[in-house]
């Protein structure tokens, strides 16, 4: 659970995501992919991920009096998340959801801190829809939703358009409200 608790930090999760997507990355490449994080903080997060065995250094290149390290993901940290989900541990579940929500909040905070943010023109939206469904209908909904996402996550998705993050949570609601 130690690895999971160290990983459940939005910045660290983003670092692992960046390196996982690229295969390998230098600190400079990670910094470019994670804007808004002070460089000293970024280096501390990378160091922590290295210390707990999630990242490994695969090469070191001398660059103007310093050494540039290239990292790759050593273990599969997202397996720890899957294990936490399967564990039945309420505290672990809460920590996972809390990190998810804080990650969204951090993304939104970074977005609105920009000089030209525009909710309408940037097509930003957030809503909550109460939907009554049986378990079977919910399974169908999730399958259809997954199929729709696959259409937009195809091989050309990175090269076209602007990066947009889509996050959602589906859970039972309190019917007394």
From TrEMBL:
Source domain of life: Bacteria
GO molecular function: DNA-binding transcription factor activity
One Pfam assignment: HTH_20
Protein name: Helix-turn-helix domain-containing protein
HTH arsR-type domain segment(s): 2-86
SMART domains (UniProt xref): HTH_ARSR
UniProt source species: Acidaminobacter hydrogenoformans DSM 2784
């Amino acid at each position: 659970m130690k690895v999971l608790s160290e990983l459940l930090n939005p910045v660290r999760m983003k670092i692992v995501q960046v390196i996982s997507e690229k295969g390998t990355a230098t600190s400079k490449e990670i910094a470019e992919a994670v804007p808004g994080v002070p460089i000293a903080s970024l280096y501390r997060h990378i160091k922590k991920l290295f210390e707990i065995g999630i990242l490994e250094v695969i090469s070191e290149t001398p660059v103007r009096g310093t050494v540039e390290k290239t990292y790759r993901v050593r273990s599969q940290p997202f397996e720890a998340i899957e294990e936490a989900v399967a564990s039945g541990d309420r505290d672990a579940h809460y920590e996972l959801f809390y990190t998810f929500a804080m990650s969204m909040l951090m993304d939104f905070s970074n977005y609105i801190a920009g000089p030209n943010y525009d909710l309408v023109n940037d097509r930003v939206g957030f809503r909550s829809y109460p939907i009554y469904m049986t378990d079977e209908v919910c399974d169908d909904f999730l399958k259809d939703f997954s199929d729709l996402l696959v259409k937009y996550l195809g091989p050309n998705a990175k090269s076209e358009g602007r990066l947009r993050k889509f996050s959602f949570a589906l859970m039972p609601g309190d019917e007394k409200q």
